Amino acid sequence: MPSKYPSYKKIWFPAKRYGLGWGLPVAWQGWVVLVGYLILLLAGMVWLFFKQNAIYYMVYVFAITAVLITICFIKGERLR
């Protein structure tokens, strides 16, 4: 099945049709990024939330979410 996205810019995350943001990944690289984000989120929960302070966990979640959003801006479809 041919892709509807041009080959010169292979996107990892398509834009949502309704609302703001991106949908589920359409490339294996996007899935690696998403699974990596979830693993880091769970590891941070175990390491920071239960053993440290909840504030550290919130800062950690903010930081890795900012990295995920940056990757989506760079490798995702342009938002409408």
Order of helices and strands: HH
Name the average pLDDT. Answer: 85
Low-confidence stretches: none
| Class by alpha and beta content | mainly alpha
Main beta sheet: strand number and arrangement? none
Total count of helical runs of at least 4 residues: 2
- Estimate the strand proportion: under 5%
**Radius of gyration over C-alpha positions, nearest whole angstrom:** 15 Å
Give the overall silhouette: elongated
Q: Indicate the percent of residues in helices.
A: 55-70%
Number of strands: 0
| Span of the ends, CA to CA | 25 Å
Topology, element by element:
Elements: H1 28-49, H2 54-75
Helix pairs in contact: 1-2
Describe what this molecule looks like in 3D.
By secondary structure, this protein is mostly helical. It has a domain at 26-80. The chain is 55% helix and 0% strand. The protein starts with 27 loop residues before the first helix and ends in a 5-residue tail after the last helix.
List the main descriptive attributes of the protein structure presented here.
about 80 residues, transmembrane helix, single chain, mainly alpha
